[in-house]
Amino acid sequence: MSSRDPVADLRRIAFLLERANEATYRVKAFRSAAATVAALPADELAERAAAGTLAKLSGVGDVTARCIAESLAGEEPVYLRRLQTTEGTDLQGAALKMREALRGDCHSHSDWSDGGSPIEEMALAAVELGHEYLVLTDHSPRLTVARGLPPARLRRQLDHVAKLNDALPEGFRILTGIEVDILDDGSLDQEDALLARLDVVVGSVHSKLRDESPRMTRRMVKALANPHLDILGHMTGRKVAAAGGGDKGHRAGHTRPPSTFDLDKVIEACVEHGKAIEINSRPDRLDPPKRMLTVAVEAGCLFTIDTDAHAPGQLDWLRFGCERAALCGVPEDRVVNTWEMERLLEWTASHA
Ligand SMILES: [Zn+2]
Ligand SMILES: [Zn+2]
């Protein structure tokens, strides 16, 4: 009997929905069904499929039950086939070359803060995308709306990641990290000793985004001078209307103008301290704007191309950042996540 793996099919559907920026509840239906099916003995699953009682399982609905039944019958689920035929166009030229050069992602979230999935699911998706590493960068304590991690929870997360790494395939590693808030005075929202322990530190402004330019400039420059900070996350904080798909509630009216600051001074600080500017690939951010990115390229900055993924399928958003990097002429060797992992870690250790 040539039955397919229903768990793999359900997970693939969830991945494609996330990648298309579809509503969270829709993705959840497939991830919950996958978890339910994975926990069920194979014979019980087959019996239920035969009896038509799959939808009686908690976590499985009519749509997901149909997918499971089709998988078990050895057919590609209709839902999956339709998703695959409407996939986006492929990358070309310089953008494709950049994408192929990327070895990992330096900005991602799990359900320890405001992400939707456990760390292991994020890691498995990264493995499937061919990454050599994924930097886990959950939020810092003051960002309570995003369930930022106080020091004790971050310590527990570090122990957890160490255990997960032991079980993950050879040639892949979860790197430890944080997306630390750059506070009003330019200091970083986590204990120094912990920041020093982490592999990679992304620093981002999430509060008082409308600070006046001189204040915001001081704040960013001070953070960049902090030896713990490696990468400046989504530098302007802008929100743009995501093209295609998207949560209904996240689309209309959810835009935000970029913060104002002295771009030359901020870029100068990046170059002086050897810090990287993140090219944030999220369709609702695409930060920094191309105009600023071009200035940073000319000034000799380092960069990262990151997804800021909050779900496994979003890890494939690197393509959007690669397109922008290619358009703005970002040289491959100045993108730190094209470097071998050892070189990346030497670089982050070199200023902290
Ligand atoms: Zn952020
Ligand atoms: Zn983030």
From TrEMBL:
TM spans (from-to): none
Organism: Paractinoplanes atraurantiacus
MF GO annotations: phosphoric ester hydrolase activity; zinc ion binding
Domain Polymerase/histidinol phosphatase N-terminal: 104-184
Gene3D superfamilies in the record: DNA polymerase beta, N-terminal domain-like (1.10.150.110), Metal-dependent hydrolases (3.20.20.140)
Domain of life where this protein originates: Bacteria
SUPFAM superfamilies: DNA polymerase beta, N-terminal domain-like (SSF47802), PHP domain-like (SSF89550)
Gene Ontology cellular component annotations, sorted alphabetically: cytosol
Keywords, ordered alphabetically: Hydrolase
InterPro entries for the chain: DNA_pol_lamdba_lyase_dom_sf, HHH_MUS81, PHP_dom, PHP_phosphatase, Pol/His_phosphatase_N, Pol/histidinol_Pase-like, PolX_PHP, UCP036978_PHPhdr
Name listed for the protein in its UniProt record: Putative hydrolase
